[in-house]
C-alpha cells in the first residue's frame, strides 16, 4: 500500500494568515502545511481521505490520475470544504463516487452540499453515492477497512485501519476497545494539532504515549499547527516517530 500525506496542517494551515512567528516565516518547505488529507492506493484502487480547502492543489501535486472512493472522517470545514472539487472525479469516472462517512457526518454534509447528492445542472447522475460507515469492517475493491471510532471534543470521528496501516484523525479521546483494534499495526499516523492541553485535541505528550502503547514500527504526526517547527520537533521525538510533511509518500 502507498500512503501519501497530501495535507499535514491544522484547520488554519501553515503559514497561518497574518502570523509572523518563525514557523510561518520559515523557508523550509516542510513547514508549509495545507489542511489535512491522505491518499491511499493499493493495486489499482485509490481512496481519498477528507476533502480540505486545498484539495485540487494537493491532487495535482501528488500526480493523482484517479480516485475510486472518498472517506470523510468528520464534518468540520477544514475536512470537507473542498468537496466541490470532487465533481471532476465523478465526471472522469462517469459514475457517482462512493462516499464513505458515518450517519451523522453524512447528514451534515448533505445539508451543506445538497447538489452533490441529487439532481444537478451538470450531470444526469449524482456526484456522490452515500455509503454509511458503521463499526463493521468491510472491503472496497481489494482494500480492507476497519473503522476506528474516537472523539474530537464532543464530536464523533471515524478513522480506519487498513491492513498494516492505520490513522487517527482529530482525536481527544479513544476507548480501550478502539485502541485494541490498532494492536499489531506496522505504520500509524496520528493527528497532533497542539503541544499543550486542549479540550478538542490530544496534546503531543499524550499522542506519544498513545503511540507507544499501540507500539507500531513507525509513526507519523500530522495535522500540526504553526507551533510545530519541522526540524525541531523531529529532533525531539523518539526515533520511531517523526513528523509528516505535505507530499510525503510511504510504502506500507
Structural class by sheet pairing and helices: alpha/beta
Q: What can be said about the biggest beta sheet?
A: 7 strands, mixed
Say which CATH homologous superfamily is assigned.
Ribonuclease Z/Hydroxyacylglutathione hydrolase-like
Low-confidence stretches: none
User: Could you say which overall geometry the principal axes of the C-alpha atoms support?
Assistant: globular
Strands, count: 14
Strand order of the largest sheet: 6-5-4-3-2-1-14
Count of DSSP-assigned helices: 7
Rounded average pLDDT: 97
- CATH architecture label name: 4-Layer Sandwich
Helix content: 10-25%
Q: Radius of gyration in whole Å, from Cα?
A: 17 Å
Which fold does the CATH topology refer to?
Answer: Metallo-beta-lactamase, Chain A
Percent of residues in β-strands: 25-35%
CATH domain class name? Alpha Beta
The number of distinct structural domains comes to: 1
Distance between the termini: 5 Å
Give the ordered list of helices and strands: EEEHEHHEHEEEEEHEHEHEE
Quick tags:
seven-stranded mixed β-sheet; single chain; 252 residues; Metallo-beta-lactamase, Chain A; alpha/beta; globular; 29% strand
